[in-house]
Specification:
355 residues; conserved putative lor/sdh protein from methanococcus maripaludis s2 fold; Elongation Factor Tu (Ef-tu), domain 3; 4-stranded antiparallel β-sheet; 14% helix; elongated
Length: 355
């Protein structure tokens, strides 16, 4: 069982508890010893609540903007004029054209390995700057390219296989593919021709035919809620946490990013929450999200209002003892919002609180 008290600092909670408890204690006579059993002041309306063993959870509300999250720039190395481009907010799937520059298309392909180097057939005697022989290119990025070519039917007449080695058959398959899409048949594949990403993306950049090529910005395809605020938010919105979202209808999301940023407003926390089922009409709007922080686990708790301050700085509560009201000393461990964590009572004991 968990409780979600109103947000307050520990010091503020203690101050509130102290102010209320002192007022009640003064009314009863702070210097006098409490009798073993006494009746509560009949002029004050009261109620009885049980002592509860629970986790104490503090909540924090924040406003989030509804969108697609932080954009990234695709590693496309090009110069020239745009001759064709998809519309902004187009979902790019594997094999789609990202943009055409000078009539030559750049393809978007879903794959696990980025195209971090030009893929080509290395000459037998080629060496690097240190004089070390380079050898054939091998690895997951080569296999990824080979799979793409095989899926399109470019296999050098059946001679190219998925062997993760850029050999002569792979070079010939690459040249055949390049001829078919309008690129020079160099046998070399680089970031001016293909971009590999791990998932489908949403195009954010708007191009006009005839403009100079500018970097391509994309985001994920799912709805993302972005919160920017105090760095204390990181405690309430940790990565992986499930967050309540006050959409219509209400839903939940998962924190996918929580990091510090520095801008003109200073150092702040940027939080991104991935959600499903948000109404498309809410894109660009502000929406409330609620994070939580477990302050204590498996503790005895009572409302702060049940605490009575004693003249020596310690605390007590009024407990129902078989129809009579007894005052019992308790140890105040801590206060979180309107909830006090105590020791000295048993779970299920009923304490008096003013209404």
């Amino acid at each position: 069982m968990s409780v979600q008290p109103v947000r307050a600092t520990r010091s503020a909670g203690l101050a509130a508890a102290g102010a209320l408890a002192v007022a009640l204690t003064v009314a009863c006579g702070p210097s006098a010893e409490a009798p073993a059993a006494a009746q509560s002041d009949p002029s004050i309306d009261t109620d009885m609540v049980p002592v509860v063993r629970q986790d104490v959870v503090e909540t924090q509300k924040a406003q989030a903007s509804v969108g697609f999250g932080t954009s990234i720039t695709l590693p496309v190395d090009l110069e020239g004029l745009v001759t064709w481009a998809p519309l902004p907010l187009t979902t790019l799937k594997s094999g789609d054209v990202l943009v055409e520059v000078g009539g030559r298309p750049v393809f978007f392909v879903v794959g696990e390995s980025p195209l971090y180097r030009p893929l080509r057939l290395v000459g037998r005697w080629e060496v690097d700057e240190a004089g070390t022989r380079l050898g054939q290119q091998k690895g997951a990025d080569v296999a990824q390219l080979q799979q793409y070519l095989l899926d399109l039917g470019f296999d050098d007449k059946g001679r190219m296989t998925l062997d993760e080695v850029f050999g002569l058959s792979t070079q010939r398959a690459v040249k055949d593919w390049q001829k078919s899409v309008g690129h020079p048949a160099t046998g070399i594949v680089d970031s001016s021709q293909i971009v590999f990403m791990t998932s489908e993306v949403l195009l954010q950049t708007e191009y006009r035919v005839g403009q100079s090529f500018t970097p391509i910005e994309v985001t994920g395809t799912g709805t993302v809620l972005t919160v920017t605020g105090s760095t204390t938010l990181r405690d309430f919105f940790p990565v992986g946490a499930t967050i309540d979202v006050s959409s219509q209808p209400p839903t939940t999301g998962v924190v996918t990013r929580s990091s510090r940023i520095s801008d003109q407003e200073g150092v702040r926390q940027l939080i991104e929450i991935s959600v499903d089922g948000v109404n498309p009409d809410e894109l660009g709007q502000s929406i409330e999200v609620v994070g939580s922080l477990t302050q204590a686990t498996d503790v005895l708790s009572i409302p702060v209002r049940a605490l009575l301050a004693k003249s020596d700085g310690t605390w007590r509560v009024e407990v129902d003892s078989g129809g009579a009201i007894s005052r019992i000393d308790v140890e105040l461990v801590s206060v979180f919002g309107t909830t006090a964590i105590i020791e000295g009572l048993e779970e299920g004991d009923e304490v008096v609180i003013p209404l």
